[in-house]
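Lab meeting, item 3. Inverse folding demo.
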């Protein structure tokens, strides 16, 4: 049985009081026993929100990024050993915004995935194509290539700690969602590719999340697709009512 996951990505939003308020609401909420809830919050709130969410079985905190080196002269960066040292369970790696604005290449992402796993962090690895790529009908090959370049060499043990988030860039923050059929087709293609790379068992066990304008109004239908195991949610994860509805959409 694959995990069902409702993950939020707050990106660079929420000042301290609002962040603690939102985390407390979600942290105290009753979540379905079979759903894993993850809050991807800004670095400076990680430790405190981890303390809040640790009280609630089923709710976890995630970093939104990690540096690819162990330590050193990288001003302003945060390392995997640092996240480990304060007990952070998850990290999001390879979000399209970081690929674009922080020039994160597949090679750098491969290092980030490696160092995160080596420090016992669970990884949510993001992939997804631009509108330009989708229009050329090259989305499958594009996403497979992203997966190949950053996670292909992982072991079966590593893969047990990895979740994939398929987030088509044209659906992020645009209000335009992939149709359930488009999401299912891409998730199936990703799962088939995981089978090629890692074998049937790993492919069957790896959770693949959809991201891109997930809302309470579309979550049930999207999460209902056979190869969609949940969502990575931006905007709607920062409104407690919306996110709780999404958590209950499986
Ligand atoms: P939105 O849900 O705001 O479209 O953001 C999706 C996303 O980028 C989550 O990582």
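The presenter then showed the designed sequence:
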């Amino acid at each position: 049985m694959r995990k069902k996951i409702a993950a939020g990505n707050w990106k660079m939003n929420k000042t301290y009081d609002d962040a603690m308020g939102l985390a407390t609401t979600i942290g105290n909420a009753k979540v379905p026993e079979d759903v894993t809830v993850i809050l991807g919050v800004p670095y400076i709130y990680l430790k405190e929100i981890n303390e809040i969410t640790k009280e609630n079985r089923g709710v976890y905190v995630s970093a939104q990024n990690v540096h690819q080196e162990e330590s050193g002269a990288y001003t302003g960066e945060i390392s995997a050993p640092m996240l480990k040292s304060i007990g952070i369970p998850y990290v999001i790696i390879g979000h399209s915004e970081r690929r674009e604005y922080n020039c994160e290449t597949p090679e750098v992402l491969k290092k980030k995935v490696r160092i995160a796993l080596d420090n016992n962090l669970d990884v949510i690895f993001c992939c997804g194509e631009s509108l330009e790529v989708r229009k050329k009908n090259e989305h499958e090959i594009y996403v497979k290539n992203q997966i190949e370049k950053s996670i292909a060499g992982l072991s079966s043990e590593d893969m047990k700690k990895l979740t994939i988030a398929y987030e088509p860039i044209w659906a992020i923050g645009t209000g335009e969602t992939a149709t359930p059929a488009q999401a299912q087709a891409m998730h199936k293609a990703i799962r088939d590719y995981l089978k090629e790379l890692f074998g049937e068992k790993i492919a069957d066990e790896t959770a693949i999340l959809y991201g891109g304008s997930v809302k309470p109004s579309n979550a049930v239908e999207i999460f209902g697709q056979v190869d969609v195991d949940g969502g990575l949610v931006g905007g709607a994860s920062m409104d407690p009512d919306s996110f709780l509805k999404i958590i209950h959409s499986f």
